[in-house]
Specification:
There is one protein chain. By secondary structure, the chain is an alpha/beta fold. The protein has a single domain, classed as STAS domain (Transcription Regulator spoIIAA, 2-Layer Sandwich), CATH 3.30.750.24. It contains 4 helices and 5 strands; from the N terminus they run E-E-H-E-H-H-E-E-H. The longest helix is centred in the C-terminal third of the chain and has 16 residues. The chain is globular, with a radius of gyration of 13 Å. The N and C termini lie far apart (33 Å).
């Protein structure tokens, strides 16, 4: 797991561990990330299936409750299968765009 922090965004890149192990590590380190937006880069894993994405549901809900964005980046996942409660995009740039859009929505009171 590689963690890169840029201003108010933490980018967590998955390297070798399984998705379940990654989720456990993020949960253990969550206090470090709770005040930042989180981007989970899963582009090194092929293919990503629905069960992998749903492993992040609890973290996503927790993070969104504190008014921060939680985005998964995967270019191998069928985006039409993503549950409503979690955001999955195919590129890093789209993840940054989602953070920007959600910040605007929060500023407008949505």
């Amino acid at each position: 797991m590689i963690i890169d922090t840029n201003e108010n965004i933490s980018i967590i890149t998955q390297e070798k561990v399984t998705v379940i192990e990654l989720v456990k590590k993020i949960e253990a380190l969550y206090p470090k990330f709770k005040n930042q937006h989180i981007i989970i880069q899963l582009t090194s894993l092929k293919p990503i299936v629905l069960e992998d994405v749903t492993e992040f549901l609890r973290l996503s809900k927790l993070h969104r409750n504190v008014k921060k964005t939680f985005v998964i980046v995967s270019n191998t996942f069928d985006l039409s299968l993503a549950p409503e409660e979690i955001i999955v995009v195919p590129t890093h740039q789209e993840a940054l765009d989602v953070i920007e859009m959600e910040n605007m929505e929060r500023d407008l009171g949505f």
